[in-house]
Amino acid sequence: MTAREVVAGARRLVVKVGSSSLTSVSGGLDVSRLDALVEAVAARVTAGTQVVLVSSGAIAAGLAPLGLARRPRDLASQQAAASVGQLHLTRAYADAFARHDRVVGQVLLTSHDVVRRAPYRNAQRTFERLLGLGVVPVVNENDTTATDEIRFGDNDRLAALVAHIVGADALVLLSDVEGVYDDDPRAPGASMLDEVHGVADLDRVRVAKPGAATVGTGGMASKLAAADLASGAGVPVLVAGASAAATALDGAEAGTVFAPTGPRLSARRFWLRHMAGSRGRLHLDDGAVRAVTSGPAAKRRSLLAAGITGSDGDFEAGDVVDLVGPHGETVARGVVAFDAEEMPELVGRKTRDLAPEHRREVVHADDLVPVRGGAEASPAAASR
Length: 384
What we know:
Layout: H1 3-9, E1 12-17, E2 23-24, E3 28-29, H2 31-46, E4 50-55, H3 58-63, H4 75-98, E5 104-109, H5 117-132, E6 136-141, H6 155-165, E7 170-175, E8 195-196, H7 220-232, E9 237-241, H8 245-251, E10 256-258, H9 267-275, E11 278-284, H10 286-293, E12 308-313, E13 320-324, E14 330-335, E15 368-370
Parallel strand pairs: 1-4, 1-7, 4-6, 5-6, 7-9, 8-10, 11-13
Antiparallel strand pairs: 2-3, 9-10, 11-12, 13-14, 14-15
Helix pairs in contact: 1-8, 2-4, 2-8, 6-7
Domain PUA: 280-363
Binding site for substrate: 56, 143, 155
EC number: 2.7.2.11
């Protein structure tokens, strides 16, 4: 089955739409654009697909009601605009979906909600229950409370992460551009890529940054990064124009599709690699690096004290830490079994030489994931 066929036949789909596709700097929400998007999503839901909608637009939707001429640059004003705009945006979605006999639920996230395992699992359960009840979750970053230190960065990345939280079969990123072009779409001779099978296919792509007048924060660069994140973990991605949402969601015969470049990670391993916050570092020798990164997940070995050369950070047993090679490069991440204050007694020592209460893995193989090289062998359904 091709990547386009997977997108077209997905039973669970994450759809992301950007601010520039829903709003304008001067006019706030463009109701006609939002209604067209909702009609396309509702049609896909009626056809039997569970859809999670990740929508930007809260800050932009708050500009006109607040009399602001452009997106503010200071954090307090952005949060104020988000507070006002989120209400307008959610109400518009609720009204539009109600015309198609669909109920929506608002889900606001910050990175604090997913970097720790317990809130991450709570988010999974909430999404699962909403979808089970036939609700269309509408997701946005909680711009009202998020700070620069705890932001996802952009909603394209958020959508890629949500695709794994909910175990989506595919991800659709809708933009104000029809797809991925090898140059500025307005430039003579620019052509759109039909399918991307890996980073080499993007070597000739030139990506411009968002302009100063934009109401969004992403642009094509953020979509390429999100597509790489999702496809690298086994989720096909379609980048298409929001104006062609009906076509993109109906049969995926639009835009640029990114084929998976790696096998599907389990939800736990994806969380460890991309979402969990690290509380410290364990420094490894060459042998330990090979043990925790080589081969498929089923054959990867646990990290033992003998392969550790040092540690730093203020972590407790059960926290996530980075596993660092001899040259300072992070090679894996994992859940540590000991507190930081216990590590000096463990570093470099063979298991038989440790106190009885310490004779166990420092990081178990089931609780670690490489961040470079290696291969994951988790089944596609594992993230459900």
